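Box 4.2: Ligand-aware structure prediction
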Amino acid sequence: MERTFAFLGPRGTNTEEAARLIFQEKGNRFLPYRTIPDCLEAAAAGKVDYAVVPWENSLEGSVNLTLDWIIHKIDLPILSELIMPISHHLVSAKREEPLALSQVTKVLSHPQAVAQCHSYLHEHLPHAEIEYVSSTAEAARLVSERFEEPWVAISAMQAVHVYPVTLIAENIEDTENNFTRFIVLGKKPLPFPESEKYKTTILVTLPSDFPGALHQVLSAFAWRRLNLSRIESRPTKTGLGNYYFVIDIEQKMDDVLLPGAFAEMEALGCQVRFLGTYPVFVKERNGARISLR
Ligand SMILES: O=C(O)C(=O)C[C@]1(C(=O)O)C=C[C@@H](O)C=C1
């Protein structure tokens, strides 16, 4: 059965690698979209079956654009998560004389990628301007097109195979512990194999004027011994100081514990929105295959 996947493009992004890794079966089609909102809207409008987007990085934290779009703009369940190691590389346009770092005037990349390479940039390219673009592959594409400019891009290794660029420096991320979580969203369920690890993600809005509401919410999980792996607050966009809490619970939706916790929060006056219950897949660094954890 043919399935279509929107990914943050153009060709050669980390998101494309994540999408192709998790959906390796023949017949799947992967379509590049220019921005994260474009990917999510394509899946929401049924132009593609699924969207694959980044949503958290181990060095830089949440990809706020993904969170905000899921919260405010669309209503698509999260169907799975892939955790993938990320390496960044410095590339320039192919040129006769290799570009010396001292000649570089501008570094282009995605804001998350730049943030994951601050130490390298501080040490080796303190003189260069930083320009944020929509993805790491877009940075490589632009640098290759403007080959007369002394510009470099921070991009993934796949981009080196897609665009006419040369590697200048490899693995420039601040630490080896650089992992990004990608999620798959879509209306139709996907037949994933059983996994040892599942998560459930919810969005909680606290009642106003309720001192200690967050404490009460957390205790609804604590006394049921439900493990939380992330609590992220995002503005509701209704006024300064109003927040949603995105909460990842380390287990699959069940019939007893989670419905009980949600009912308890609702009884406190909280609004609870279910964002998905899904298997987690992990690609180990240097691991040829993804494993289930
Ligand atoms: O630009 C890319 O290659 C992406 O896939 C985006 C993205 C991100 O938004 O976090 C994905 C993984 C890395 O953390 C850096 C950039």
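In the box above, the bound molecule is prephenic acid. The pocket of prephenic acid is lined by residues 8, 13-15, 54, 57, 63, 86, 110, 112-113, 135-137, 156, 180 (CB under 6 Å).
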